[in-house]
Amino acid sequence: MRVIAGTFRSRLLEAPPGMSTRPTSDRLRESLFNVLAPHIADANFLDLYAGSGAVGIEAISRGAQTVTFVEHGRDAARILRGNLERLGITDGFRIRAGSVKVFLTARSSNSGPEPQRYEVVFLDPPYDADEEYTSTLGLLGGPAAVHLAPGAVVIAEHRRKQSLEDRYGSLKRTRLLQQGDAALSFYSFHGDVPPKEAGALRPLEP
Questions:
Q1: Which pLDDT tens digit goes with each residue over 72-125?
Q2: Residue 72 maps to which CATH number?
Q3: What pLDDT does residue 192 have?
Q4: What is the DSSP annotation of 138-180?
Q5: Which helix (H) or strand (E) holds 133?
Q6: What is the mean pLDDT of residues 168-174?
Q7: What is the number of domains present in the chain?
Q8: Closest CA to 71 of 92, 52, 97, 46
């Protein structure tokens, strides 16, 4: 794997061994960021099921303000940290060890501090874990929408033959990009927006 563009263009990245963690291919990642290009600069980016961190690192390379990586696997998290270290990335990111569900629900509590709001969220669960797609997209379109900035974009990578819903609460699918056996479903956040937060990134067009 390599970084496609930006500050760290063409730098190589390590991927976890085996098939339990499936890195997003260079070609699919390039297609993803071609679509996201107007949304990345200065954005707060959330990389769920981060694995090697290739997607979040691509966002850093292209000018994201901050990236939060959420990864449960110990080996994958070790490789993620190694990739950041090899590139000399020392700030502008956070790594949250643990499950995506715990991350989203723990920070959705009304009694806790105001959660970070993200303009772009990417999720890439294991293809066979259908319940992870339903659970995570359902949370982001529902109680965990507190993590989303007005007009946020949420992207799910999945099998081409796997059908995701067109709506998950406040998330509405605006685009489906298919490439080989993989697909990317793009959702826009259509939740209530407090007046003080006007002027956020515009939703993706179909």
A1: 999 999 999 999 999 999 999 999 999 999 999 985 555 555 678 999 999 999
A2: 3.40.50.150
A3: 59
A4: HHHTTGGGGGEEEEEEEEEEEETTPPPPSEETTEEEEEEEEET
A5: helix 130-140
A6: 97
A7: 1
A8: 97
- Asked whether residue 100 is assigned to any structural domain, the reply reads yes
- Residue-wise pLDDT for 129-150, tens only, equals 889 999 999 999 999 999 999 9
Alpha-carbon span 116 to 76, nearest angstrom = 24
- Among 30, 13, 79, which residue's Cα sits nearest to residue 51? 79
Let me know if residue 67 belongs to a domain. Answer: yes
Question: Does residue 42 sit within a domain?
Answer: yes
Q: Which domain holds residue 175?
A: 28-192
> Residue 135 is inside which H or E element, if any?
helix 130-140
Q: For residue 92, tell me if it sits in a domain.
A: yes
> Which residue, among 148, 89, 141, has the nearest Cα to 119 in the 3D structure?
148
pTM score, whole prediction: 0.89
pLDDT, tens digit, for every residue of 41-67? 999 999 999 999 999 999 999 999 999
3-state secondary structure of 206: coil
